[in-house]
Write a structure and sequence with these properties.
Two copies of one chain form a homodimer. By secondary structure, chain A is an alpha/beta fold. Chain A is 44% helix and 16% strand. The first copy, chain A, contains 16 helices and 16 strands. An eight-stranded parallel sheet of chain A has the order 4-14-13-12-11-10-6-5. In chain A, helix 11 links the parallel strand 12 and strand 13. Chain A is globular. The interface between A and B is large, with 38 and 38 residues.
Chain lengths: 416, 416
């Protein structure tokens, strides 16, 4: 198959390969890698998925990681990461990365923050020092961190909140979205890998034809980053109000972003409300752009949301639960610390092909957890991440199959 | 090269391939794997080298691990490990394992122990519960844990101690050595993998000729464990008194063990004293048996002891130091938390080929440590273990080369 020149994304490209109902199976090309969607993005808060080395993440098939701007801004600091070539260079991760804007993290600080039109003043959870994030400074930080996909700075509305509060918060997020986009457009050339790659390849590139550059792309499986920039996603807010969500979606789309996220969910509302808001909001997002649902959920939920048309999701649940010995399996969630596993020689999940389930028994995993061994957290995290990735792969597969089954069966289907 | 039938060890076999000065390069065949000596054995206290999964240990070239009987006896308990096929099955480690006798661990409990002729009463460091180890129960525990090499139960003499105290302690260890050997000889057939392997292969084995069994051995790189048992090592004590060490060595050898350990060192004495006692004790050990120096030391020290004729060593230093951010490199020991590494894009050790040095920068490792990320402990441990293994490999290589160089140069050497 010939590689088309269009596969050199300036920032990202998104192609939908198949649909089944509202679910979409697609491919997201970023300056660093291809991402098959729907995709689950493991959370690497501080430039590390806690306890798991990058080669294991690669082996698990992780295609895109999430980093937290707020945390990385505090430690090690944006300038350090920028000098190391951005997060990709700093953490030695050649595949795709997305950073959040810091908005949700700052929202989580509660008493430690103060919101104004200009931005948010907050105190570090580490040492109480005072800091300020504005749409502009959040963009500056995310450009310095150099993820492939970055997020507009938003206010995550608290729950519950009355309609006027939700509206004014949504309006603030919209004004911040415009400011985020403006700053990004003016500064996107400052991304650290854009520069460094450009300088690294410029002498050779100058002598190259488009054909040879295309060959490089094909051979390396990577896109040509020398001319690439990051992609900026907008975030839809609007609380639990379908009408405000609709307005937020339409006005965010009007500003224009490379992709659209649904923020402000999983903040304490019932899961049924989450589902309703996701469903109603998705209806107002352009079908040709990636849909990113932020911060959800259980394996069942991410499968459901993917079938509803969400393309990207992240959640701390698999990694955080793993560190507490809560493991997701094809037979349900189990707490590995339970005494009933003490002499259980079987694999954690007989239906799982991950390196943990292939090698270790429940008895061993139970012992590691009970004895507070470091390896418990490492192995539990590997399994849970693997389980989430497998869940998304299964949904993707069913969407691809579902579409084909529909196509194949159509001619012979009896007309009713 | 034809594999000789002698390479099926009933317990272990030890062959010296080359010597250089007092240093020896050898091969230790255990029922589970071949071990090239001199060898460093990483400490896997509770059935895990803290933070490092078994596949990484394999990749690093770890050939033999050490487990701590005291800790495994408390958690998960010997019976649990035994039912899982011993430590090999329990932790999914197919290569060799050595367990200590629990003597040194109990010695470390200080106020929580009471020694009598019969054994040691001690309180668990976990819950204060009372337990009793005798030579017989320590053997029973180690047979249940099923390591390839197990240690006689000894009393580790405190430092400093007067001569009479050292002598009486040494005499107690000698009496316990005899009891350990007696119990072991009577019960060695109860090793869990001996039984389970025997039953698993018995039907096929019955129909097999010795030739085909030999082929199996060659193909799998493993020894025939169906008829194998563990090997019991004796421990030389005698404090810092060369004369008592000599007596302890001779009388321990008289009892007769498959290998001999030097215990009771690294208990607070000056390093020069350690070296002197090691040197003088080694002179009284049989050259055709493995020499195991327990619980030492720095990379320089383990290299020195190997050159003095020690074949096996273990130490918590590389793993424990790693968790405190202290890393051994070809340029000396460094504390990765230092601010000078914050923007150091170079590898931890330019001379190291481990997966950590090949992939991550000092800046990243410094950040992980400073941010208290789990991955810091994982990666630091991988590097330090790798560095220790490389140190032993270099000594082994120099012994092999030294011997050959000596042999090659001999004919042309001018006679003086």
């Amino acid at each position: 198959m010939a590689v088309q020149l269009e596969s050199f994304p300036v920032s990202i490209q998104f192609q939908i390969e198949a649909t089944s109902g509202l679910g979409r199976a697609g491919r997201l090309l970023t300056p660093h890698s291809e991402v098959e969607t729907p995709v689950f993005m493991p959370v690497g808060t501080l430039g590390s998925v806690k306890g798991v080395s990058q080669d294991v993440l690669e082996e698990l098939g992780v295609q895109i990681l999430l980093g937290n701007t707020y945390h990385l801004y505090l430690r090690p600091g944006v300038e350090t990461v920028r000098r190391m070539g951005g997060l990709h260079g700093f953490m030695s991760w050649e595949r795709s990365i997305l950073t959040d804007s810091g908005g949700f993290q700052v929202f989580s600080l509660n008493d430690l923050r103060k919101v104004s039109e200009e931005g948010v003043t907050f105190r570090s959870h580490l040492d109480g020092s005072s800091h300020f994030f504005s749409p502009e400074s959040a963009m500056e930080a995310q450009i310095g961190l150099g993820a492939d996909i970055i997020m507009a700075f938003d206010e995550c509305t608290e729950f519950p909140a009355d309609r006027e509060r939700v509206r004014s918060s949504m309006e603030l997020t919209l004004r911040w979205a415009e400011r985020s986009k403006k700053y990004f457009e003016e500064h996107k050339g400052e991304v650290p890998w854009g520069r460094s790659r450009l300088s690294a390849v410029s002498s050779q590139e100058n002598a190259k034809s488009l054909d040879s550059a295309r060959d490089d792309n094909q051979a390396g499986g990577r896109t040509n980053a020398s001319a690439a920039t990051q992609a900026l996603f907008g975030i839809v807010q609007g609380g639990m109000d379908r009408e405000l969500r609709r307005e937020s979606a339409l006005r965010t789309v009007e500003i224009g972003f490379a992709g659209y996220a649904i923020g402000g969910l999983s903040v304490g509302e019932p899961r049924e409300v989450t589902r309703e808001i996701v469903e109603s909001t998705l209806a107002h997002l352009p079908t040709d752009k990636p849909h990113y649902l932020m911060g959800v959920g259980t394996p069942d939920e991410i499968a459901l949301y993917a079938q509803m048309g969400v393309d990207m999701m992240d959640c701390v649940l698999p990694t955080r639960a793993a560190r507490h010995g809560l493991l997701f399996t094809s037979e349900g969630k189990i707490s590995i610390k339970q005494a009933r596993f003490a002499q259980d020689g079987g694999p954690l999940d007989p239906g799982c092909g991950c390196r943990v389930c292939q090698r270790y028994s429940r008895a061993y995993l139970r012992h590691l957890y009970a004895a507070n061994e470091l390896l418990a957290q490492v192995l539990n995290t590997i399994h849970n991440v693997s389980f989430y990735l497998d869940t998304m792969r299964a949904v993707r597969h069913s969407i691809l199959l579902g579409d084909r089954a529909h196509f194949l069966s159509e001619p012979s289907r009896p007309k009713s």
